[in-house]
Design goal:
By secondary structure, the chain is α+β, with helices and mostly antiparallel strands. Helix content is 42%, strand content 34%. It is built from 7 helices and 12 strands. It has helices at 2-51, 54-99, 101-112, 204-211, 234-242, 251-258, 318-323; strands at 117-130, 133-146, 152-161, 164-173, 178-182, 185-189, 218-221, 225-233, 261-271, 277-290, 293-306, 325-326. It has a 12-stranded mixed β-sheet. The radius of gyration is 34 Å and the shape is globular. Mean pLDDT is 76; it is low at 1-42, 46-50 and 88-97.
């Protein structure tokens, strides 16, 4: 269908070009006749002017000068009006940026398009009771990443939980391979296995997605930042906050997600000068059920972003490549 539409548009363009080419000779003939008539009229006017008295000629000159002065004054007024209108539009746009969440999100999305690398770090704390079994977990993440056509990543993750020993992991990602170190052992696998490691990263596409929900955000203005705060429940909250994360759910947890009743708060902090997203805060509480049973979940995530465009290349060390065992 897209190819068909493309051929139709090209066909219309060619028809229009052909029509212009065929009309051009007739337009030239018309212009030629008009020029000849104009020349003839000019000669008659010159002869008539030559026969006029001097005082009439002088009057004509004054009238012509007055017309020119009036025209210049009109142009100056028009330019002044245009300038005033432009300044008014700029003032309105500035006001929108200060008070309207959608305008701030739009500026931030555009700014983040120019970010090619950054640091992301933060902590997620969760307290979940599934089938009367409680798990308290704290996950801390530090990541340097290059984003764009092929995401490149170096990330460390520390997991602390009440029901098992602490775990420390390290990851590298490039376009060829994903490397994971767990329990002092390096593994290598296809890059798509790294999708969960990029889940906490909010980039320009996600900010652009939030624009449609701008009216639901409250704008809090601080000295150097805007804070966009949203509070909501259930399906609306899941659509706005978790929408991009649905793709990482496996079948086992999908009904857990769809049956979730949730209430929470989501805050985005955006730098006033650069419009870069510099941090976010997510807090929610939910009850749910599914194949895994019944559950009650509380979670709080705080992540920050910095070192924008500070990295040119992230290289997987040779010793990691050599030590990694392939996962089939």
């Amino acid at each position: 269908m897209k190819k068909l539409i493309g051929f139709i548009l090209i066909g219309i363009a060619l028809l229009l070009m052909t029509a212009c080419s065929e009309d051009e000779p007739a337009m030239n003939n018309t212009n030629k006749n008009t020029v000849e008539e104009t020349d003839a009229t000019s000669e008659e006017d010159n002869e008539a002017k030559a026969e006029q008295p001097d005082d009439v000629v002088e009057t004509d000159k004054k009238a012509k000068q007055q017309n020119e002065d009036d025209s210049n004054q009109s142009n100056e007024q028009s330019n002044t009006d245009d300038t005033n209108m432009e300044e008014t539009n700029q003032s309105d746009d500035t006001t929108a940026k200060l008070t309207d969440a959608a305008a701030i999100l739009r500026k931030s999305s555009e700014a983040m398009k120019n970010v090619e690398s950054l640091y992301m770090g933060g902590t997620t704390v969760s307290d979940a009771i599934i089938n009367d079994v409680e798990r308290i977990e704290r996950i801390h993440v530090d990541a340097d990443m290059i984003i764009g056509g092929h995401n490149t990543l170096h990330q460390t993750v520390k997991i602390e939980a009440n029901d098992e020993p602490d775990s420390n992991m390290e990851m590298y990602l490039n376009k060829e391979m994903y490397y994971l170190k767990e329990n002092d052992k390096w593994l290598s696998m296809e890059p798509e296995y790294a999708v969960n490691n990029l889940y906490n990263t909010i980039l320009n596409e996600q900010l652009s997605f939030y624009i449609d929900y701008g009216s639901l955000y409250q704008v809090i203005e601080e000295e150097d930042h805007y804070i966009l705060s949203y509070s909501g429940t259930d399906e609306e909250f899941k659509e706005i906050v978790f929408g991009a994360g649905q793709k990482v759910l496996n079948d086992f947890f999908r009904d857990f997600y769809h049956n979730m009743k949730v209430t929470g708060t989501y805050e985005l902090t955006i730098d006033k000068q650069t419009f870069y997203l510099t941090s976010y805060l997510l807090k929610y509480e939910a009850t749910t059920s599914g194949a895994a049973g019944k559950g009650h979940i509380y979670e709080k995530s705080e992540f920050s972003y910095s070192n924008f465009n500070a990295y040119v290349e992230l290289i997987v060390p040779q010793e990691v490549r050599e030590a990694a065992e392939p996962v089939e």
